[in-house]
Amino acid sequence: MPTAMLPLLSEPGAYVACPWDLTKNEQRRGYWIKLFREHYDGLLVLAMEDALDRGIPRDVAESQMAQARAGFGAYLSHVEAEPDSFGRLTILSMCEARERTLRRAGIPAPYRLAKQKENTSAMALLPTVLAEIDALDGAERLERIMRGVFAGNIFDLGAVKTIELFKDGEVDFHHTLGKLKPRPWFVDHLDAWCDRWQNGPTHQCAVMFVDNAGPDVLLGMLPFARELLHRGTGVILTANEFPSLNDVTHDELMLLVQHIAETDTVIRDALQSGQLELITSGNGAPLIDLRRISSALAEAIYRRDVDLCVIEGMGRAIETNFDTEFTCDTLKLAMIKDLGVGEAMGAELYDLVLRFDAE
Fold first, then answer.
1. Are 317 and 331 contacting, i.e. CB atoms less than 8 angstroms apart?
2. CA-CA distance, 245 to 153, in Å (whole number)?
3. What is the helix (H) or strand (E) element at residue 277, kind and residue range?
4. What sections of 90-137 are H helices per DSSP?
């Protein structure tokens, strides 16, 4: 797929996607090696379930799992023994290595079944969530939308702590919404964002980098996109081209939005008029390097004169791009769901980040 640099970067030549160089920090490197190793075992359990569901013979599936386990295990052992041999080692490069070993082993989408289940339950709840938002006005309405983004973002099967919540049956959208940490949040620019929303000119067009399937995108980011559309702002929704963990993909998002458009007039009218577009980011990892987005997305950002960039999720908005500066208004939204990320940021588990940087 042809790629390009995100046109909205303030200093393209100085851009660094993931600033945490693990070759320079042995303790942090050891943490991530251990985490990737432990997480991969659970990932392959889901991959086996997916393979059998797709009709792959058990012996073939077991061979694929063994190949994937050996391949990624060898990579992590190499990182452990010779970290300097990889040049600049980051969480992003480790994620990309994981995805390569899965695809080489013929494992395309380990989280397919989990995402289907999440999407079904979230879609059933969406009318209630939209009705709750539509009953509110002003700053209260906008804050409820932002809180919904946070509550949805806990639905993450790439973070060990949230996987534990899923296993224990402790994750429910409205329960999470009511249990979010009180303000002031770890990064709390909500008042500045509300002031810009209420007193500034309406944005021309927003590009929104979405994160996980299920409640994250359907109950968090889609209501936010709908509010922008209702306000008169154009929206480009951009999701991964390739499966990675339980991140929603472009093709999956297309089907979900088309389904929503059958009953929601705001989404339907925006799709029909072109006010709402869905364009692949070209990405295939839970983090993102903005030097390598799809050419189609870069072209659309130019064409539609984007003046608001929304980056959601711990991987895209914190582990990569937290300090990246842009030429337009920018929102970075995430819940911190990993102890290593929290330590690097000086934050605690489940702390919330709403960072608004004005142009």
1. no
2. 14
3. strand 276-278
4. 91-104, 112-134
Six-digit token pair at 304? Answer: 């539609």
| Rounded-to-integer distance, Cα 266 and Cα 260, Å | 10
* Structural domains in the chain, sorted by start: 17-104 (1.20.1700), 114-357 (3.40.50.10880)
For the entire predicted model, the pTM comes to 0.96
* 139: Cβ contacts below 8 Å, ≥ 6 apart: 194, 198
Nearest to 234 by CA among 195, 276, 192, 200: 276
Cβ–Cβ < 8 Å for 310, 217: no
| 238 strand-pairing partners | 209
Alpha helices per DSSP H over 86-218 = 91-104, 112-134, 138-153, 160-167, 173-179, 190-199, 215
Token look-up 């983090």 returns 287
Q: What is the pLDDT of residues 37-65, one digit of tens each?
A: 999 999 999 999 999 999 999 999 999 99
Instruction: Write out pLDDT tens, residues 262-308.
Output: 999 999 999 999 999 999 999 999 999 999 999 999 999 999 999 99
The answer to whether the beta carbons of residues 253 and 239 sit under 8 Å apart is yes
Q: Tell whether the model's pLDDT for residue 169 goes beyond 70.
A: no
pLDDT at residue 343 tops 90: yes
Nearest in space to 180 (alpha carbons), one of 207, 220, 209, 211: 220
